[in-house]
Design a protein that fits this description.
The chain contains eight helices and ten strands. With about 270 residues, the protein is an alpha+beta fold. It is elongated and about 70 Å long. About 25% of the residues are buried. The N terminus is likely disordered.
Length: about 270
């Protein structure tokens, strides 16, 4: 497949110099690669050389788990993988370029990150200073099916942790949550200022029963609160996750160690 031609004014010279397509990404056989005189030495050392533009697009794709993948055969063959939907702001040309460069695999705009892309993101995250201390690195390597329990990134049980929350943090994993504890029942409001990803909030009473669920958009300073003043616990998850898993008012979420266990209402 030919590499797409780009206008000179739109070239990212760093990407063109360091992020050129790998031979593997072009679908050539080992013999064809040898005939071309190209080294087949693994390119792991180049993981950290991706341009900022490529890293930005990879982060956007990695945080956009594809809730509905229409290709049933693809899901059957890749059931243990984290399939992501490519956001609309990433053009078809950029998507093709990333696939050709060996950063993404998949059909259409439902893709998976390759090992090269995962290594690049890992190195990028590890090099960042001044990020939220609760950030996790490389969690996409352990994508799993939901089995009635969530991973708890941290428990916010004091004013400092409750105030900071997920501000300036990396996105939550697919089944990862933050658990807030308060000292007495009330109607507690939340906002999403300085949080780069949207969230769903489950408001729980003293018996850990869900009394309301609300959504917040990314970096939204508008306050969101429950239609109840009996809230003692609040669970933050990726937006739409509770709906996706069929979790609603009346179900219970119980904290046990670093896991949050779902107990469906009967």
């Amino acid at each position: 497949m030919p590499i797409p031609i780009k206008p000179v004014h739109s070239l990212d010279l760093h990407a063109e110099l360091f992020d050129g397509p790998s031979m593997e990404g072009l679908g050539l056989s080992d013999i064809q690669i040898q005939l071309l005189g190209v080294s087949q030495t693994p390119r792991k050392a180049e993981a950290a050389k991706l341009s900022d533009r490529y890293l930005t697009m990879l982060k956007s794709i990695d945080s956009n788990t594809d809730v509905l993948v229409t290709a049933a055969s693809y899901v059957a063959l890749h059931k243990d993988s984290n399939v992501c939907g490519v956001p609309t702001e990433i053009s078809d040309n950029d998507l093709l370029a990333m696939k050709t460069a060996g950063l993404l695999t998949g059909y259409g705009r439902s893709v998976e990150l390759t090992e090269r892309a995962k290594l690049a993101l890992r190195d990028h995250y590890l090099s960042i200073d001044n990020v939220n201390e609760f950030r996790k690195v490389g969690s996409w390597l352990t994508s799993k099916e939901f089995r009635d329990e969530f991973d708890v990134r941290f428990v916010a049980n004091n004013d400092k942790l409750r105030t900071k929350g997920l501000m300036n943090a990396e996105p939550l994993d697919e089944y990862e949550v933050v658990y807030f504890e308060f000292d007495y029942p009330d109607s507690y409001s939340f906002w999403n200022k300085n949080v780069s990803f949207p969230l769903s909030l489950a408001f729980l009473d003293k018996n850990h029963k869900i009394v309301d669920i609300k959504d917040m958009e990314a970096d939204d300073p508008k306050s969101v609160g429950p239609d109840s003043n009996s809230v003692v616990f609040v669970v933050e998850a990726n937006k739409g996750l509770f709906k996706k898993l069929g979790i609603g008012v009346g179900d219970k979420l119980l904290l046990k160690g670093n896991k949050l266990i779902l107990s469906k209402k009967t």
